[in-house]
Write a sequence for this structure.
């Protein structure tokens, strides 16, 4: 099998979720609806937080930041997928594939860090309520979001530059609906040992560190809640972080499951299907999870849309 240098690569082929022609209109309609719901729902959260002075608190600042990242995260993959289905083309150029990898890794890692930051916010609110306003001051909150972004960008830049050293065939088939990092590296003709080492280190640090922070925060939160004597106090404390815990469970369980199962060659198609959960479904559900049980968000959304939120 002849390997071409990366400068000679003409195109990658995204095989998508299914190659059955009769399923393409169904997949297009389904993903278009999910994408529009994701963008609209998260935009409403951002508008609600920015327009209501009662929501200018650390928790809602992080929620608005998460909504922005979710919009960007989904927009790196779904529009190109919809375009390919509409034009009946599977082609994505090498440069666009690399660009998609770069932004996907940025917003994926940024999502991880924001979930960890939100867990820390819950920890401070429940375990140190008297010092909450001092610890979670606006400058510190902005610094947490900024540092999350900087680390995400540096990691994505490193991983993307590592791909440039690889050689591929002139035409590469990727069994996925976007340029998923593992799949692209796996299609290389040259030695990928260094790429695998850097990639796995990045997953352990940028995936494991936020997850460890979340688990530590919730262990302290559970310990604090157990010391509350009244049932009403326990319920109020738990409801503060219940929505966040739901999102964390959904995002991390699906994303970790995909990356752990991607080591098996026969799981390429199932991995692509499972990726839909954390790339599309989770960002789509976040606005609903955070708003259905939150009276402040409901009130702000009602003011914006004029429609009562159930």
């Amino acid at each position: 099998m002849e390997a071409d240098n990366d400068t000679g690569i003409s195109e990658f082929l995204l095989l998508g979720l299914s190659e059955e022609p009769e399923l393409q209109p169904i997949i297009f309609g389904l993903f278009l609806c999910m994408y529009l719901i994701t963008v609209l729902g998260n935009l409403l959260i951002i508008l609600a937080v920015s327009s209501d002075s009662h929501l200018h608190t650390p928790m809602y600042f992080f929620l608005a930041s998460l909504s922005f990242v979710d919009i960007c995260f989904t927009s790196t993959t779904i529009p190109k997928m919809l375009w390919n289905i509409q034009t009946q083309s599977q082609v994505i150029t090498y440069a666009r594939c690399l660009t998609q990898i770069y932004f996907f890794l940025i917003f994926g890692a940024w999502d991880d860090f924001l979930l960890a930051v939100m867990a820390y916010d819950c920890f401070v609110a429940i375990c140190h309520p008297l010092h909450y306003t001092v610890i979670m001051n606006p400058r510190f909150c902005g610094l947490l979001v900024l540092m999350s972004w900087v680390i995400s960008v540096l990691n994505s830049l490193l991983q993307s530059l590592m791909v440039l050293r690889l050689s591929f065939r002139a035409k590469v088939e990727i069994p996925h609906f976007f340029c998923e990092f593992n799949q692209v590296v796996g299609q290389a003709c040259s030695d990928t040992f260094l790429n695998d080492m850097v990639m796995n280190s990045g997953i352990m640090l940028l995936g494991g560190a936020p997850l460890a922070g979340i688990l530590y925060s919730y262990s302290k939160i559970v310990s604090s809640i157990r010391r509350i004597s009244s049932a009403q106090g326990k319920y109020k404390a738990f409801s503060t972080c219940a929505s966040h815990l739901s999102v964390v469970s959904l995002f991390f369980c699906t994303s970790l499951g995909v990356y752990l199962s991607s080591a098996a060659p026969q799981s390429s198609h199932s991995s692509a299907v499972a990726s839909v959960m954390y790339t599309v479904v989770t960002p789509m559900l976040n606005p609903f999870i955070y708003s259905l049980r939150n009276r402040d968000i409901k009130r702000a959304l009602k003011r914006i849309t004029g429609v009562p939120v159930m």
